[in-house]
Design goal:
14 strands, twelve-stranded antiparallel beta barrel, disordered N terminus
Length: 264
Amino acid sequence: MRNALRACAAAALLSTPLFAQAQAKAEPDFTVSGNAGLFSDYRFRGFSQTGYSFAFQGGFDIAHKSGFYIGNWNSNVEQGLYNGASLEMDVYAGYKTTLGDLGFDVGYLYYYYPKSGALGTTKVKNGEVYFGTSYGPLSAKFFYATTPFFSLGEPPTAGNADTKGSWYLDLTGNFDLGSGWGLVAHYGYQKIAKSDVLFRQGIVGEDTDSIADYRVGLTKDAGGWLLGANYVGTNSKNYFKTAESGFTKGAGKGGLVFSVAKTF
């Protein structure tokens, strides 16, 4: 279909006056896009944020033709895990450009949890700068925490340690298999500052500061709806816990995540 559309467009250009061609090529200053999806679990860097239950997610982006953009993304989360918050709201801004076949992306991302900090608990938040590059189906992105990492180490209920400077590396490949099918492969590596202190204080469940997560799966474009099935896991299943059963259940055990999503 895409090749047929290109052929039709080429034929139209051959029979169109030059002034009309110039008008047709005019790029809008701003473009707006949105996305929404239903997921069987919300996994963030391998760990469930919804107690291994469903999540509805969505957001929008506003991009300028110069490469600058701003956006918002939202998901429900487990209230107990986020000290009373049932919603995650992410806001971000950045700049994208290309140099030959290489793509570059730099920006800032802030995670906000309305109503967190209930009953005198720590209010959860997180801010990260990020730097990314891409080449064909491959991409790499580095995130660096400019605030305490999701408020870990912040009194009164999240311990006492400075977790600024925690970082994460995301390596991802998205491969087109043809006929609407795609293959996704991901490896992530999280480094958490002062993790040994957090472990001694009982804030995290395992004595390590290095956590790897992985994801592999298939996608299928079904009439504009993207269907997905991914196996997600970590090498540190109990580092973070779900709020289920009084934080006794590890949030990083491996499992399948199914999804249906759409961009518009």
